Inverse folding.
């Protein structure tokens, strides 16, 4: 609703809607500023209904005022204040800002800025307390459950406070009643209506007694400090907060309860010392690769989507362990590592280099397939450094169980998992010592076979040959370390 | 809510209240989806205050107070004869949702005694968080106490559902841990905190969710003979090495059925208060732990004046400071000037010359600041050097305890 301006000979009186009339004030301020009316020539009145004797200018016809953001954001947070001077003070601020004191809001020590800032702070506090101290009660009506609350704010803040409850309790139907009006949310739209009374909120909510129990119990009688409590939760709020009924008794009993705790002799434990349980507790680590794999299998993928965890494969006494990146599409479906195109290439190369695949241990740094869907195709997506870290604990334990003589990192992700560092393959290809994990391993860094698949045909042959050379050196190293 | 559940709630809230942390802040602003419930506001909300002056923000409970550990300071140690109870996962979820719907709480702070094994316990805690998020679309705040002895992959999982993870150091030295908490392992605590800290940083960089409100810890004050200087040094170290958001200081408080090796006494509340102030100096006022310690006596902070004032009194040659000229760092060192007041001063003096009246509008503790300040119309010539300055600035004894 717009404000109406009545023109007097010496002073102007602006009549605004009772409560927080932001629109009315904005329209009036625009008009007054346009007509260059100084603040001392205006009186704002908001305590009665708007007068019919307005001036003829249609509301909101004036051009918006151009004001610094600090001012435009201050205005709506002062307008709900109860102080009848609020509009006059705000107009005085606007006037000064428009007349040479553009940066006035930065001068927090200015008496007017200081006063308005304190008013805005009071509104902020009132809002915060309403968000904090309002209590809903559950009621049943034919449409199902509904929540109702009665609250008495200090200022005209119902409309400013309601959006918080909409965001938080969007899925509930609720009504907030105040002495100045009500806000009603039906799960879809927010509506405002006439004031209510405390009697409109029915007694008896199934959880209220439980809440009071919690409130009583979470109080520590050895730290009594009612002053601090009242500073943050002034008494005026208590009558609408069911838990505060417990306060007098809690305060009365606190000193005795504390004295009793201090004076009472310690008792001997009635329970038998649970030595076996304590020993068992300390012994929770997985005892075998199978136990570890059972844990991995039942854990959900970090990035949702994978069909299953793909575990390492190979004999426990393997001399050489190969660590890849993460399972691909085929591996994810079959639940076995290195069975897709890259795995087949690796198998061929191992055979050529004279490494027995069946005698080697093959696993991945990350145990779940991560992909993006393109049409029906699942396109492999490289794991991030954080994901590699997330999975590294398992790789650590896994290699501990397998205890290979030589660990081969296939590609950059495996190197990252084994060293904790992003090391370019081109620079570090060849023998390498992996010592990030609890167990230190003689290692070897080479490319991932999928890299060979991605190369253009003309480069493939040479890269493949280099890969075979690596594998042959790995075979030799493995044989040396095995003896 | 039936009687059996209320009875459990009484036992398991009582068992959880000695954890000082109640913050529901720091979570990214978030609103539940269509069928869910809950939101986080960034700053957190205190929904009530109990007569100990502490806020009730989260439903702070233990899953169970059965515990295999025997930490002397703890109400739940296995040798204590307190009554025991255990919630089911569903009960905790149900309580949280129903309290939340009535606007009693911001969310859940769940901890637990160690039952069967650390892993088993950690799995249960995570199941609660997961059920709230998945089955109820709960977007409110969840703080999970992590079990440092649990396997690292379980901590990885907990961080996916919690807004904050915390692990309590409780006792700052290995010697105290050995004497008072024999099952706890200082190295395991440090490693788990490092793991959480590292993962939080990575997840932020990769825009993934992992304990987005950071991680925190608690140390007990007054159960062993650690000095304030040592506590603050430990905190500085933790803030730096594992990226902690908060260290909570919890005055060792009388508990039902105390232990023989740790006699009960009234909690050192004034000391706890000074430690929080000193901690603030580390985090917001650019003090080092060493500087805080330099203003202590024998490693202990003065109880009658705040640590910033204590430092200023020992370093009088650096005062008075001109509010109209001094740099921000030096203004932060003026007793009675908070970080926010300093920011306002720095802004305002660009447009005006500040007089003492102006400063009075920017801080609520001008009395303490006055002897250390120069303003356009004020110069505390004699005051700064007065021998009795300390006595003049001592706060009237605070009613921290009604004993």
């Amino acid at each position: 609703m717009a404000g109406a301006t009545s023109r007097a000979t010496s002073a102007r009186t602006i009549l605004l809607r009772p409560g927080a009339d932001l629109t009315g004030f904005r329209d009036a301020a625009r008009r007054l500023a346009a007509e260059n009316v100084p603040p001392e020539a205006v009186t704002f009145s908001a305590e009665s209904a708007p007068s019919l004797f307005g001036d003829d200018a249609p509301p909101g016809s004036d051009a918006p005022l151009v004001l610094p953001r600090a001012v435009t954001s201050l205005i709506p947070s002062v307008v709900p204040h109860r102080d009848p001077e609020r509009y006059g003070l705000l107009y005085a601020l606007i006037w000064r800002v428009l007349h040479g004191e553009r940066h006035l809001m930065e001068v927090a020590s200015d008496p007017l800025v200081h006063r308005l800032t304190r008013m805005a702070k009071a509104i902020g506090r009132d809002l915060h307390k309403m968000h904090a101290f309002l209590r809903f009660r559950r009621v049943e009506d034919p449409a199902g459950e509904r929540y109702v609350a009665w609250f008495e704010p200090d200022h005209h803040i119902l409309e400013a406070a309601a959006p918080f409850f909409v965001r938080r309790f969007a899925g509930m139907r609720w009504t907030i009643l105040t002495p100045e009006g009500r806000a009603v949310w039906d799960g879809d739209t927010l509506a405002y209506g006439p004031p209510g009374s405390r009697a409109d909120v029915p007694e008896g909510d199934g959880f209220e007694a439980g809440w009071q129990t919690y409130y009583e119990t979470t109080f520590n009688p050895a730290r009594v400090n009612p002053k601090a409590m009242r500073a943050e939760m002034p008494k005026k709020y208590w009558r609408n907060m069911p838990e505060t009924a417990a306060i007098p008794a809690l305060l009365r009993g606190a000193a005795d309860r504390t004295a009793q705790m201090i004076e009472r002799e310690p008792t001997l434990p009635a329970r038998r010392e649970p030595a076996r349980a304590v020993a068992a507790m300390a012994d929770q680590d997985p005892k075998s690769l199978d136990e570890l794999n059972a844990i991995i299998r039942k854990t959900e993928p970090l990035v949702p989507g994978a069909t299953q965890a793909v575990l390492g494969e190979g004999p426990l006494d393997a001399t050489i362990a190969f660590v890849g990146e993460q399972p691909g599409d085929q591996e994810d479906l079959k639940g076995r590592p290195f069975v897709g195109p890259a795995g087949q290439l690796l198998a061929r190369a191992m055979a050529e280099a004279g490494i027995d695949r069946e005698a080697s241990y093959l696993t991945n740094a990350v145990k779940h397939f991560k992909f993006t869907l393109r049409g029906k195709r699942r396109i492999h997506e490289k794991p991030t450094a954080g994901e590699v870290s997330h999975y590294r604990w398992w790789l650590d334990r896994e290699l501990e169980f397998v205890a290979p003589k030589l660990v081969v990192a296939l590609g950059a992700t495996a190197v990252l998992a084994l060293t904790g560092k992003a090391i370019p393959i081109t620079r570090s290809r060849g023998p390498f010592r992996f010592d990030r994990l609890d167990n230190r391993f003689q290692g070897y860094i080479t490319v991932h076979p999928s890299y060979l698949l991605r190369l253009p045909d003309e480069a493939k042959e040479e890269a493949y040959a280099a890969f075979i050379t690596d594998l042959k050196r790995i075979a030799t190293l493995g044989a040396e370390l095995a003896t | 809510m039936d009687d059996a559940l209320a009875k459990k709630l009484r036992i398991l809230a009582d068992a959880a209240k000695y954890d000082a942390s109640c913050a529901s802040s720091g979570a990214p602003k978030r609103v539940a989806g269509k069928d869910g419930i809950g939101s986080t506001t960034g700053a957190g909300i205190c929904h009530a205050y109990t007569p100990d002056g502490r806020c009730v923000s989260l439903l702070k409970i233990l899953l169970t107070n059965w515990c295999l550990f025997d930490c002397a300071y703890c109400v739940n140690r296995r040798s204590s004869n307190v009554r025991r109870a255990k919630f089911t996962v569903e009960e905790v979820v149900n309580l949280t949702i129903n309290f939340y719907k009535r606007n009693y709480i911001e969310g859940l702070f769940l901890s637990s005694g160690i039952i069967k094994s650390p892993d088993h316990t950690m799995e249960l805690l995570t199941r609660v968080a997961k059920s709230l998020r998945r089955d109820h679309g709960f977007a409110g705040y969840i703080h999970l106490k992590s079990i440092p002895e649990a396997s690292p992959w379980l901590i990885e999982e907990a961080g996916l559902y919690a807004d904050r993870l915390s692990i309590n150091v409780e006792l700052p030295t290995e010697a105290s841990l050995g004497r008072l908490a024999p099952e706890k392992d200082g190295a395991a605590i440090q490693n788990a905190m490092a793991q959480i800290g590292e993962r939080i940083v990575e997840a932020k960089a990769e825009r993934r969710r992992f304990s987005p409100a950071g991680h925190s810890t608690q140390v007990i004050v007054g159960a062993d003979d650690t000095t304030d200087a040592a506590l603050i040094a430990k905190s500085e170290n933790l803030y730096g090495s594992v990226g902690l958001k908060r260290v909570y200081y919890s005055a060792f408080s009388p508990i039902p059925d105390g232990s023989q090796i740790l006699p009960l006494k009234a909690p050192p509340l004034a000391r706890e208060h000074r430690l929080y102030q000193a901690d603030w100096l580390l985090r917001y006022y650019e003090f080092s732990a060493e500087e805080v310690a330099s203003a202590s006596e024998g490693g202990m902070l003065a109880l009658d004046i705040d640590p910033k004032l204590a430092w200023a009194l020992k370093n009088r040659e650096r005062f008075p400071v001109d509010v109209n000229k001094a740099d921000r760092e030096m203004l932060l060192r003026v007793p009675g000037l908070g970080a926010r007041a300093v920011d306002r001063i720095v802004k305002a003096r660009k447009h005006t010359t500040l007089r003492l009246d102006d400063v009075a509008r920017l801080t609520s503790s001008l009395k303490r600041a006055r002897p250390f300040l120069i303003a356009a119309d004020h110069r505390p010539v004699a005051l700064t050097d007065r021998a009795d300055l300390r006595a003049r600035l001592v706060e009237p004894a605070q009613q921290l305890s009604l004993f």
Q: What stands out?
A: The CA atoms of residues 68 and 192 of chain B lie 20 Å apart. Chain B touches chain A through 98 residues (CB under 8 Å). The first strand of chain B starts at residue 30 and ends at 31. Chain B has a mean pLDDT of 93.
